[in-house]
């Protein structure tokens, strides 16, 4: 049986961007928080009415708490624990929570009630998990609610014969306190949530890039597997061809065809033998290479863009590190060099240096360098500004991916501008030698 569409399942009224870019709130999480609210409200009313014996509109308060509990119970039995709320549904439920809480506060003293600050909770949840347009609407509704609370005619439950009158100035001060707390906490929750989402998306993109870079290095293993799987049927074909050649050697009608069949099967076996050799004997050549060869392989694709690319080796090649063909390192360095070429005026310098303790690579360009406000944020995802007059775009997700991949390999990166007399940017990438040298004892 197909359930009819309801408030929770409705997907109209919001964009695809809301669906894909926002982190949808899990219904079970909201239900548990609401059960906590039901328990807290019920306990508070019980203490005030039966222990402190303050006069309290008990029936109205109990009805409001029961309404919240009933909605929560309905959601629990109606939807599975894994159900996730679409933005409109989350907005409606959080708005209902806000309205129920404000109604309870309204009949128990309004802003004079010490629990009035709890109005901020649904707003903070919304800003932490929902699209900004829904969250903005909710905080607007919350501002209206706390304004109405300031004009509550109901007294704060207190001792018999004692009435607490809160001065209008005090009421206004409480209103400002709750409003400012709500706005600050909502903005903070939104910023933290947005940065966490961007970081998660950027790391996912990093994993996709690394997976793509590793794809080609796996082809030799596939070739070996194919050679192994095809070896048995080809051996059978060869044996049968030999038997046929022996039986039909005097039959001119089939002798040439059988000889051709046997020669072609032998040729297929030779090809598979070479594939197997490529995967085993050629593994060291394909997967390990000297540091100088790796750097030249990375630099070579960027020499054809009208920018002079100079490679300086400060250390002798004798005794240089032999590195594994690490897809993350090669992609990361390639991205940094490509970025330097994009922003250089005439020249990019790549300096390589190594000793017994470290391996250092410095990439310098003669462009305008990094803007001061960007220099402290380099490496964050979606930082997209750099001083260059004739190029749109800049430093963003690509640089974040490169930095992340290089740091995973054990490198430390320093981004800086060159000396004042030589304009441009400089990137220093340094590894402990034992991490990058395949011949070192790790």
From TrEMBL:
Q: InterPro entries attached here?
A: 2C_sensor_his_kinase, HATPase_C_sf, HATPase_dom, His_kinase_dom, HisK_dim/P_dom, HisK_dim/P_sf, RegB, Sig_transdc_His_kin-like_C
Where in or outside the cell? Cell membrane
Q: Name one GO molecular function term.
A: phosphorelay sensor kinase activity
Q: What class of enzyme is it?
A: transferase
In terms of Gene3D superfamilies, this protein maps to: 1.10.287.130, Histidine kinase-like ATPase, C-terminal domain
EC number annotated for this UniProt entry: 2.7.13.3
Instruction: Quote the protein name from its UniProt record.
Output: histidine kinase
Indicate the principal place this protein occupies in or around the cell.
membrane
Give the signal sequence positions: none
Write down the superkingdom of origin: Bacteria
Reactions this protein catalyses:
ATP + protein L-histidine = ADP + protein N-phospho-L-histidine
Write the record's keywords in alphabetical order, separated by commas. ATP-binding, Cell membrane, Kinase, Membrane, Nucleotide-binding, Phosphoprotein, Transferase, Transmembrane, Transmembrane helix
Q: Name one GO cellular component term.
A: plasma membrane
């Amino acid at each position: 049986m197909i359930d009819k569409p309801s408030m929770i399942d409705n997907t109209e009224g919001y964009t695809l961007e809301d669906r894909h870019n926002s982190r949808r709130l899990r219904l079970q999480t909201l239900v548990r928080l609401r059960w906590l609210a039901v328990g807290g409200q019920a306990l508070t009313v019980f203490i005030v009415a039966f222990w402190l014996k303050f006069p309290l509109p008990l029936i109205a308060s109990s009805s409001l708490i029961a309404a919240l509990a009933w909605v929560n119970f309905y959601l629990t039995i109606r939807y599975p624990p894994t159900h996730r709320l679409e933005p409109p549904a989350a907005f409606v439920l959080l708005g209902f929570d806000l309205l129920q809480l404000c109604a309870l506060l309204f009949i128990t003293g309004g802003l004079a009630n010490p629990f009035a600050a709890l109005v901020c909770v649904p707003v903070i949840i919304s800003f932490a998990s929902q699209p900004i347009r829904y969250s903005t609407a909710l905080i607007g509704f919350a501002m209206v609610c706390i304004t109405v609370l300031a004009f509550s005619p109901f007294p704060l439950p207190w001792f018999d014969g004692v009435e607490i009158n809160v001065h209008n100035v005090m009421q206004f001060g409480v209103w400002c306190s709750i409003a400012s707390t709500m706005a600050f906490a909502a903005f903070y929750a939104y910023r933290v949530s947005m940065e966490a989402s961007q970081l998660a998306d950027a790391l996912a993109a990093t994993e996709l890039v690394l997976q793509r870079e590793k794809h080609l290095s796996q082809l030799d293993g596939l070739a070996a597997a194919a050679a192994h799987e095809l070896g048995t049927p080809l051996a059978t074909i060869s044996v049968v061809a030999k038997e046929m050649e022996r039986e039909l050697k005097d039959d001119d009608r089939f002798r040439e065809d059988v000889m051709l069949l046997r020669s072609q099967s032998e040729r297929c076996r030779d090809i598979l033998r070479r594939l197997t050799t490529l995967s085993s004997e050629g593994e060291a050549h394909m997967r390990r290479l000297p540091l100088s060869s790796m750097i030249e392989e990375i630099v070579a694709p960027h020499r054809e863009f009208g920018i002079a690319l100079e490679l300086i080796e400060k250390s002798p090649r004798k005794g240089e590190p032999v590195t594994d063909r690490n897809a993350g390192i090669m992609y990361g360095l390639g991205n940094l060099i490509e970025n330097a070429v994009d922003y250089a005026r005439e020249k990019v310098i790549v300096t390589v240096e190594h000793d017994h303790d470290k391996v250092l690579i410095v990439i310098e360009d003669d462009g305008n360098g990094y803007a001061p406000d960007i220099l402290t944020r380099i490496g964050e995802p979606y930082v997209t500004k750099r001083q260059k007059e004739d190029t749109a775009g800049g430093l963003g997700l690509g640089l974040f991916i490169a930095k992340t991949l290089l740091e995973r390999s054990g490198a430390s990166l320093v981004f800086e501008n060159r000396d004042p007399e030589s304009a441009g940017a400089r990137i220093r990438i340094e590894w402990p030698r034992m991490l990058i040298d395949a011949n070192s004892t790790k």
